Amino acid sequence: MKKKKVLFVATVAKAHIMTFHVPFLKWYKENGYETYVCAKNDYEIKGNCAIPYCDNYYDLPFERAPIKFNNFKTYKQLKHIIHSNEFDIIHCHTPVGGALARLAAKDVRNDTNTKVIYTAHGFHFYKGASLLNWLIYYPIEKWLSRYTDILLTINNEDYKRAQNFKSKCIEYIPGVGLDSGTFNEIELDSEEKRNEIGVEEDNYLILSVGELNKNKNHKVIIKAIAKLGNTNIKYLICGQGPYEKKLKELASDLGIEKQLILLGYRNDVDEIYKISNLFAFPSYREGLSLSLMEAMSSGLPVVASDIRGNSDLIKNGIGGYLLDPNDVNGYFKKILEIMSNQQLSKEMTIANKKSIKKFYIENVLKKYSDIINKVVSNK
Q1: Residue 349 class from Cβ within 10 Å (0-12 exposed, 13-18 middle, 19+ buried)?
Q2: How much is the average pLDDT of 3-26?
Q3: What pLDDT is attached to residue 1?
Q4: What is d(CA 111, CA 114) in angstroms, rounded to the nearest whole number?
């Protein structure tokens, strides 16, 4: 009997496959599939790229920008891999990875029983997106949907918008899944951890997790903290990116350079959630943020932007507050309100720990497995 095969495709290995898809690869292995992954090796030390539950890995030169020569090269390699293997399922992710995989697989969908699944981790066209994004990405995604057997969306706005697409089946799943144990069962010495990162025991810690870039919009929180005029507040950011210098300069210009602590890339983010008091997430665009889910599972009250994805997770006024991404005064007021009201903070902690449960990986995998089993049984 021929062994079942599944191919996962994404632009990069470390920042996408390893971050989001290891539990899904594990599920396939446990269900008798031989697993394949095509993604660019984005590890600084290339030898560190070891993907669990992956039987066959192809390092392909994906580029995030669509019109790049390497993507034409990647398309040819991807097409050869797909035509050389009789995959039962091809599950593709990321805009470029999803586009190239669906184009490379369009012939085998007609000639074999291969089913193509695409997970939209957040369409680039959304409420509030630029006209340019709509003009470029909307027609491309709508056109590619005809080569998609199952389109998976991870937030309600994308799910509703995708109803106009040509995919054979459109499903909603609650994100990529959160490991409940990682953030619920952790034990640590809070004072020791605070000493380790250089903050005092009585400091009020506002935490953000994400790349230092324009989209993550950390600047609005820096401005709100400056407006608060409370030197006991420290703003921790876990992440790297091109905006590091700009954020430092902004904090210096506002006279709060000692209150901004850029921690860079961290392997102990779960512990940093536990010592923090408030999570700030003012992004302009998200699909369904894993870091926001982690913060909720850790019991942090939240101030976040009122955008797609965030509004799927946070009930405004219950688990935190949702605000316009550019509303410095709004963030100032809501941070002050949560800081000043311990009872409110406790109620938000309880609410977030309760509402996040449906996004745990075991629940996501249950929904995912139901979809896959239905697809397989319908071949």
Answers
A1: middle
A2: 94
A3: 63
A4: 8
The answer to whether the beta carbons of residues 154 and 122 sit under 8 Å apart is yes
Residue 333: burial class (beta carbons within 10 Å; 0-12, 13-18, 19+): middle
Q: Is the pLDDT of residue 95 over 60?
A: yes
Rounded Cα distance, 11 and 41, in Å: 9
DSSP 286-313: -SS-HHHHHHHHTT--EEEE-STTHHHH
Tokens linked to 24? 């899904």
**Rounded distance, CA 226 to CA 39, Å?**
42
**pTM of the full predicted structure?**
0.86
- Residue 145 CA to residue 109 CA, distance in Å, equals 13
Residue 379 pLDDT greater than 60, yes or no: no
At residue 320, does pLDDT exceed 90? yes
39-55 per-position pLDDT tens digit: 999 998 999 999 999 99
Tracing tokens 């992954």 back to the chain, one arrives at 37
Judged by phi (left if over 0) then psi (alpha if -120 to 50, else beta), residue 164 lies in alpha
